[in-house]
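Hi C.,

You asked whether I'd gotten around to modeling the 125-residue construct. I have! Everything is below, sequence then structure, no commentary in between.
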Amino acid sequence: VQLQASGGGLVQAGDSLRLSCAASGLTFSNRVMGWFRQAPEKEREFVAGISWRGGYTVYGDSVRGRFTISRDNSKNMLYLQMYTLKSEDTAVYYCAAHRSNYPRDYEPATGYEYWGQGTLVTVSS
């Protein structure tokens, strides 16, 4: 299984950025997917999750209303569109595939079976 995150970079506060995650080696269309992030010296934080058909999405409190998670099952791709970026959004962003098709709670990192390598987003103020 490979989850290849991309799209990170250096942006200014207020800018937008879209992250992508290419999945292979798993039946992507059957997997709940999520995005997490980890800033230096901080714990990994849940950012967003999406059901396997894409009809249900959930967001962490710090990004709700600014970020949008989406997926294209025909391309085995997961996306995170980020708007109005803030300096506190600076982190390494990871995509992950959940163990369950119908998780009760999308947020715990322990529920995710496969992880990508991460892509760094740096927001300058």
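If it helps when you're writing up: The two ends are 37 Å apart (CA to CA).

Thanks,
B.
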